[in-house]
Amino acid sequence: MMPTRQGSFRLFRLFGIDVHLHWSWLFVAIYSVSVRVPNYRSPVWALLEYLALFLIVLMHEYGHSLACRSVGGQADQIVLWPLGGVAYVSPPPRPGAVLWSLAAGPLVNVVLFPFLVAAIIVGERAGWETNHADLNRFIWAVGMVNALLLGFNLMPVYPLDGGQILRAVLWFFIGKARSLTVATVVGFLGGAVFVLYALLHADLWLGVLSLFLIMNCWRGFQEARMLRRVEQLPRRPEFACPVCRSAPPIGAYWRCQQCRQPFDPFASSAVCPHCGSVHAVTACPDCGQSKPILAWDVRVHDV
């Protein structure tokens, strides 16, 4: 399961995006800082190192959110938790838009990389290792953290950025459902490798992360199966979703919000035949976007 606002508190709002911090992050922060304290002469630098990690992760998630908005998607929430961060983004259901929204996060780490390398080089030439040992260790640590986060996130293991980028690239060639299937299968294999490594090295943290990845791969695989079933349904060629342009399936695959009975809004002009309630919008089973049923009429939009 992905982290939600449950168990978290709101830190601030920037660029119209609410940033939430899960309560468990504080305990992990205390433990992580205490582990890093022996590496510095002053414990303040250990705290600054963890705050730098916090900032890098936050910038990474803002990269996802702002990129999603740039292609017309919705992004208004970021949740930070011990295993990293999650930007809740909803890009337009097009492979290009999805790919840009996903790639922009690691791109932030790519942009930071030369600046951190430059700082390390400056420190070595200025003799910081001798004169400012704590500052030198801090810059090296931040540079390594940024590089490790970039490398780890680009692994093609779903739902890491690399796995989702793989899915977005495959979407161009084999479609939405098959691309998700391939990405989750690769994710299962990667998760199994992580589990094996965690067991061999008694790495509890990696073990927890591996289980998280495998659970999300399973959810993605189930979603892919559902998408494949939806794609195979007979369609109404006279209608098209105004967002993704896919034709709606024929049949009672929608549920009335009032009486909860299944019905086909395209066969009854969005009026439930069971209770007579009128539905202002109708959701697309392919992209999930909801629009008034008149907006679906191909004859209106294709003239």
Q: How do you describe this structure in short?
A:
This protein is α+β, with helices and mostly antiparallel strands and 303 residues long. The chain has 3 domains: 8-154, no CATH class; 174-232; 236-303, no CATH class. The chain is built from 9 helices and 8 strands.
List keywords for this structure.
303 residues; alpha+beta; 3 domains; 4-stranded mixed beta sheet; two-stranded antiparallel ribbon; 9 helices
N-to-C series of helices and strands: EEHHEEHHHHHHEEEEH
Q: What is the rounded Rg?
A: 24 Å
How large a portion of the residues is in β-strands, by DSSP E? 5-15%
Largest sheet: 4 strands, mixed
How would you sum up this structure, described in words?
The chain is of the alpha+beta class and 303 residues long. The protein folds into 3 domains: 8-154, no CATH class; 174-232; 236-303, no CATH class. It is built from 9 helices and 8 strands. The protein has helices spanning 24-36, 43-70, 95-126, 128-131, 133-153, 161-174, 176-200, 204-231, 298-301; strands at residues 8-14, 17-22, 74-81, 84-90, 254-255, 262-263, 282-283, 290-291. Strands 1-2-3-4 form a 4-stranded mixed beta sheet. A two-stranded antiparallel sheet has the order 5-6. Strands 7-8 form a two-stranded antiparallel ribbon. Strand 7 and strand 8 (290-291) form a beta hairpin. The mean pLDDT is 89.
Secondary structure elements and pairings:
Layout: E1 8-14, E2 17-22, H1 24-36, H2 43-70, E3 74-81, E4 84-90, H3 95-126, H4 128-131, H5 133-153, H6 161-174, H7 176-200, H8 204-231, E5 254-255, E6 262-263, E7 282-283, E8 290-291, H9 298-301
Parallel strand pairs: 2-3
Antiparallel strand pairs: 1-2, 3-4, 5-6, 7-8
Helix pairs in contact: 1-2, 2-3, 2-5, 3-5, 3-6, 6-7, 7-8
